[in-house]
Design goal:
CATH architecture of the largest domain: Alpha-Beta Barrel
Distance between the termini: 10 Å
Shape: globular
Bound molecules: alpha-D-galactopyranose, zinc ion
Oligomer: single chain
Strand content: 15-25%
CATH topology of the largest domain: TIM Barrel
Radius of gyration: 26 Å
Number of strands: 27
CATH class of the largest domain: Alpha Beta
Structural class: alpha/beta
Number of domains: 3
Length: 688
């Protein structure tokens, strides 16, 4: 039963709209602050992230605190019925601190200490830095705990899991390893297979995260950095949680990066947030970006079991990163903003509110340009989003409960980087595989949860596991039980190969008993060059009801059916005639194995058949044109559908029932023309 979640803070039962605001850069011209307030109102912005990089303005010299400017801004926001997503400043350290306490600066693998400068580069172990953070965070919490503008704590900025090789970090890593391996060095040496190249560790102190030949060690280093980063976040949060227990505490994730396990991190925050920067208009069509972004948005919602999340940063027009910097074309800003809302965000926030005059990001997209008025296209488009969000109060707190889950696991991704790449080379395209298996559902308008291997499988009818090279402890048993009880699982080539230490399973792939569940033995895998492909022919009368021939690319595995039914076979190569797609009935469920990287054409038909068999309903019962998706949010009484057209031309969509256009209030029935990059929010009574 879907219910409505409370808003991010009870103070504000509306969609949040705003962005990173750096008033401290304009301290010499306070008249700009008044203009900011006027423009915020005009653009429909009600939530500003402030103080993210403000340490040198808040504490210009050690122990000399200056909160006057922040008091003024907090008061101004409150006076304009706007809120502060108030940051702690640890993302960037002031120069006096780097000078007085050099130990807060990270140490490189060669032992050299990094110079002052940049950002996101403090040592996470440093007791001084931790103490300095706690002091300033406590001061912020004490000062603003009862301030009407305080809405959310934005702790630090984009923690990145970067390396620090200082003595303290290394010592902590070694301690962490002792705990993980129960103080048994032999256990660790076995897990690392360290007699290879004579790398066995005679003492704990000999273990350094620089031995890149030991894959298990490098994966543990990633695990440790995740642990250390969460620990750092938690200590930053101590004074905030103590003094403002009702204010949610969060930090902004970067789902597109691989450095931290955000599943572990999500447990530590009160609300999940992320910074989304797709490269729109880069490719022949927008679908790749739309699908990858939708998948990451879904992941944010799934991380708190359906609870709405925050789009903490996005760009109103032009990003600083990317090879070629293309502006969002007209329409794309509304579409991409409501895309986040469609997948469960209760906010649309930007980097940045006003362009800085100098330094790295002076040309990065912003609501307010150097020109300084409301006359720019960027500003007007942001204001349109503001108007739309103001009409979406009823959507706040609503969610969706998908029957389909895609397993995308950060630890598996680290293992692929370390281990699988050695064998399959650059063909280990994990995220692309996740996208290809997600895309058919997106195209059909079937909601998907994106879980990791620690996720609860029993909420779903269908679980898909692209390239699950590493099996985390306990996962194989849970997957087996899921299928046994009636679930449907889809696994691909080169899955269940290694354990958590990147130690290969003995006794054949897929390992840990999954060979029996899927009824296949994967004997060997082949990598192919980009110009090559392999034919896959559907077997006559196969249970999928799919006929004809398809292409596999990049990777094909030679498998043997062991009690599974062959649905398709390879059409050429030395293994022609051997199985490429199989299914086994196991217990009450079904286990499908795709032995090769299949193209989108096959996956589309394949998943369409599966959702039909499992009675999983798309959110709209009429077919959607290519490049269009429909996503659902519901409170159990009213369904809100977000119909989105990523095509560069208009399309017609046949509506399956009568809807109300939530933004215009008009009735919608019959055929709807969606202009290019158009998005509609449509409501109907909940479909049982
Ligand atoms: C990140 C950071 C911001 C800013 C933007 C630019 O997401 O958090 O401070 O640098 O990138 O795109
Ligand atoms: Zn360190």
């Amino acid at each position: 039963m879907t219910t409505r979640y409370p808003p991010i803070h009870p103070k504000c039962p509306h969609m949040l709209h705003g962005g990173d605001y750096n008033p401290d850069q304009w301290i010499r011209t306070p008249e700009v602050w008044d203009e900011d307030m006027r423009l915020m109102k005009l653009s429909g912005c009600n939530a500003m992230s402030i103080g993210i990089f403000s340490w040198s303005s808040l504490e210009p010299q050690e122990g000399q605190f200056e909160f006057g400017w922040l008091d003024t801004i907090m008061d101004k926001l409150a006076a304009h019925n706007a809120y502060a997503v108030l940051a702690t400043p640890s993302g960037s350290k002031p120069a006096w601190m780097s000078r007085t306490y050099p130990e807060i600066r990270r140490v490189n693998a060669d032992g050299s200490r990094q110079p002052h400068g940049g950002r996101h580069n403090h040592c996470r172990s440093s007791p001084v830095y931790r103490q300095k953070c706690q002091t300033i965070n406590r001061k912020l919490a004490e000062r603003y705990k009862d301030h009407p503008a305080l809405l959310v704590w934005h702790v630090s900025n984009e923690y990145n899991g970067g390396d620090c090789h200082c003595e303290l970090c290394i010592k902590w890593f070694q301690e962490w390893l002792r705990d993980r391996y129960q103080h048994d060095l032999d256990r660790l040496n076995h897990a690392y297979w360290s007699s290879f190249w004579s790398h066995a560790f005679p003492t704990w102190e000999d273990i350094l995260p620089t031995d890149k030949g030991i894959h298990g060690l490098m994966i543990d280093w990633d695990r440790f950095k995740t642990h250390q980063t969460i620990d750092f976040f938690n200590q930053e949060a101590v004074p905030l949680r103590e003094l403002t227990p009702g204010v949610p505490v969060t930090t902004n994730f970067m789902n597109g990066t691989t450095t931290l396990d955000y599943w572990a991190f999500a447990r530590a925050v009160d609300v999940v947030t992320w910074d989304s920067y797709p490269n729109w208009h880069e490719h022949a069509d927008e679908l790749g970006e739309a699908v990858a972004t939708a998948r990451m948005h879904d992941q944010c919602r799934t991380m708190k079991a359906g609870k709405p999340w925050m789009l903490m940063e996005s760009v109103p027009s032009i990003p600083t990163r990317g090879r070629v910097k293309k502006r969002k074309e007209p329409g794309m800003h509304m579409l991409s903003s409501l895309q986040a809302v469609a997948h469960g965000s209760d906010t649309v926030q930007y980097f940045q509110w006003r362009k800085s005059r100098g330094c790295m990001e002076k040309f990065h997209g912003a609501v307010v340009d150097h020109e300084g008025t409301e006359k720019t296209r960027e500003f007007k488009e942001v204001a349109e989003v503001g108007q739309a969000l103001a009409k979406l109060d009823a959507v706040v707190g609503t969610s969706v409960q998908p029957s389909v889950a895609l397993v995308q696991d950060w630890e598996n991704e680290w293992a692929i980087r370390e281990g699988a790449r050695v064998y399959l080379g650059e063909n280990t395209k994990y995220r692309q595989d996740c996208d290809s298996h997600y895309r058919p559902f997106w195209s059909m308008g079937v909601p998907v949860d994106v879980i990791d291997q620690t996720g609860d499988l029993d909420r779903y009818k269908l679980v898909t596991l692209p390239l699950s090279y590493m099996l985390r402890d306990g996962f194989a048993d849970r997957l087996r039980a899921f299928v046994e009880r009636g679930g449907t699982a889809v696994m691909t080539y080169w899955s269940a190969v290694v354990d958590e230490s990147d130690l290969c399973f003995l006794g054949g792939v897929p390992g840990r008993g999954l060979r029996e569940v899927f009824g296949v033995w994967e004997e060997e895998s082949q990598s192919y060059y980009p110009h090559e492909s392999v034919k896959v022919a559907m077997s006559k009368g196969n249970a999928l009801g799919i006929s004809g021939e398809f292409k596999a690319v990049d990777t094909c595995s030679v498998i043997h059916a062991e009690g599974s039914k062959v649905l398709a076979t390879y059409g050429d190569q030395y293994f022609a005639g051997s199985p490429a797609v199989t299914v086994k009935t196991f217990g009450k469920g079904k286990a499908y194995y795709l032995a090769a990287r299949m193209g989108q054409d096959f996956l589309t038909l394949f998943y369409k058949k599966l959702i039909g068999d499992l009675s999983i309903k798309p959110v709209m019962s009429t077919e959607l044109p290519k490049g269009v998706t429909a996503q659902l949010r519901t409170d159990g009484k009213t369904d809100y559908l977000f119909l989105q057209n990523y095509n560069r031309q208009p399309v017609e969509v046949a509506l399956d029932t009568d809807y109300t256009d939530v933004l215009s209030g008009k009735a919608l029935r019959g055929k709807l023309t969606l202009e290019h990059y158009a998005v509609r929010v449509m409501s109907r009574p909940t479909r049982k």
